[in-house]
Amino acid sequence: MAEVVLENICKTYGNNFHAIDQLNLSVEDGEFLILVGPSGCGKSTALRMIAGLEDVTSGSLRIGGVDVVDMPPKDRDIAMVFQSYALYPHMTVFENIGFSMRLAGKSKAERKKRVDEIAKTLQLTSLLDSKPANLSGGQRQRVAMGRAMVREPAAFLMDEPLSNLDAKLRVQMRAEITSLQKQLGVTTIYVTHDQTEAMTMGDRVAVLKGGVLQQVDTPKRLYESPVNAFVAGFIGSPSMNLFEATLTGDELMSGALAIRLQDAAFVRRPGLRSYAGRKVVFGIRPEDLYDSSLESGRKYQTIPAKVTSIEELGSEQIVHLNIDAVRVDSGDPDAVQDFGLASNAVAKFEPVSTVRSGSEIRLALDDAKLHFFDPETHLAI
Amino acid sequence: MTRQKRSHHKLKRAVAPYLYLSPSLLIIGLLMLLPMVTVIAYSFQNSAVLRRDPSFAGLKHYQAIFDDPVFWASLWHTLYFTCMSVIFHMTIGMAFALMLNSDRINPTLRNILRVLYILPWLFTAVIIAVIWRLLLEPNGVVNSILMQIGIIGSKVEWFSSPQTALHAVTFANIWAGYPLFMVSLLAGLQGIPKDFYEAADIDGAKAYQKLIFITIPQLMPIIISISLLDFIWTMQVFPLIWITTGGGPIYSTEVLSTYTYKLAFSSYNLSQASASAVVILLISLGLTLFYIRYQKAR
Fold it and tell me: Where would I find the ABC transporter domain in this sequence (chain A) (predicted)?
């Protein structure tokens, strides 16, 4: 087990494309860190650099206190689980799990002992003689985990290991990987583009965008105090609603819309006063918007909105709305899909809500949950 | 009426596949099956083709060729020629495919090499035979180079000496045939996921271990298929040997195809030639059955 430290790591490709720019990250011994971000943000590149599968252009990379920048992958004492699992189709489960031991020249008896132990932990004992083609997605995933575990590495690196599984199995494997990591206590760096995985699995989450680290924090703090509009939009599903408005006195004004701010909002964010008379970006999560006709929404101030469409999920309703405000793009390419053509806001309503598509409603909002960002820099105020 | 319609539809569905297949079956029957059956019939007749009413000869012609030492020499030469060709086609094809698939070679050089390596495939057997006859002439380029670098002391008559002729034609055939393996294996190599090698790198595999544990097992279906096909094709090679050595000197490059040709068109013993052709057919058939069984097993 070991600490993984990245200092000023840069990765530039031949065409002058900066995949990673000045990445500083410290993963503590035994910690489960999630690297998350939209497609092309450099998260997989960062992981592959830690594994030694990509060269580091500049910066320092230490695993267990040893500088590994110029070390080949095999000497870094890491194990990796690939998105495709990279299981050898011509080998049985036993041979796949024991492959690294075979390469290291370990005897068959030694290999059998260790592989049997791993198989027992992962409930693969009955499948040891099967070939990967005869396994289900979840079983293959476990074999890939077994192959990583067999070497007792200092750190696990996982590159979107659940992305090939169906939604139900993904939830199950999420829990299995988390509990396995806790049980083994091995430093783990896990790459995903799925923010639900990021929020539910990691001790801390590092959010990347365009090769630049945006924020590293616990899932709760990322959700509650995003450092910028990108993190605010990226974390949470559906994404946070972001709008532009003018701060007039203690009111946010946008078109016919007026949202009154409590004094507490200014106390919590002393910088907000300086935006008086100026434009500001405000954000509110879909779960902080309510149907004003229901009990849950009665205590909050309301704004007019038009329902454009509704997604019934049984436990909740995702309501797409149009409000009189200019929506701000958080910079997350995946967030665009949350909004239809006619809508610019999303709310999560209770299943008892009776709002109908096309109706004009009063939308209640919890102003204590508003987030504020600078309109130019998109940094949190 | 409805029942009648239904049975008509059933009949149409049953007959349709045979109708679709009939043109190809007809062509195969006329161009392959009929000549094959005719040759088998000739092999049991006396003075086949030459006489209008040939008499039944039984196994006489088979007895004759099995008693002929030249037949056994031809069979041995065919096996040597075929085995060496297939082994070296595969080895050279694999080496070149690995080279062309390597990231370590400059992409421009790789493209140039790709064209160069595939060149032998562009030539017909006649051209290849002529090229190698010129190159391996006593006064040819090969002798001149080998003498200059001191490998041989005097001119070697590659195609005219019984000691070297079989090796020389085998060499020419190896040169002509490796691109098939190279192209097939290169396609196979490009289909092996990069992840396999990266996972092996992390697990500490050396280059030769990656070759043994990943590359070769992944290419095995291609290696077996192409080797079997190459074996079948090489066994039947005729023009290259006919043009370079004609089966000589003193039968030293006689293979089953040239042996049969000579029986038919030099000695005009078409019955015995047919018996020899049937023997070749049986050997090829054995290999083909093996190939089909392997393909089915996959």
Answer: 4-235
